[in-house]
Write the structure tokens for this entry.
Amino acid sequence: MDFVRVGKTADFEGKRFRRYTILARKVAVFREPDGSFYAIEFACKHQNWDLSTGRIGGDLVTCPRHGWVYNIRTGACLRHDSKRLRRYAVKVEGDDIHLSVRPVEDADDAPADEEEWPIFGDG
Ligand code: FES
């Protein structure tokens, strides 16, 4: 799995998430209270709207355009079972945050078991 450096852990001071663009795809990196990170595609599956402009409450984000709701941890769309935001692997090395170039689901070495999906943190 290939990774690309996108930012620094210090970029998250006072922020729950930051949005990056990886290969023209909008991806949000979230920081957990314990200092670990996870990443998820952040463009609505309906009309590609930027979900960082949506309302985030708990583990849910609501697209401001037509109200589709997603679980930001699993990527599941609560409106349409067949639609899912793709997840990216996050690797923290020192102060640098790296994201997988491709979504985990697309990677050749993606784990079959959901429990084994790579989420790394320096927590
Ligand atoms: S663009 Fe997100 S619900 Fe329509």
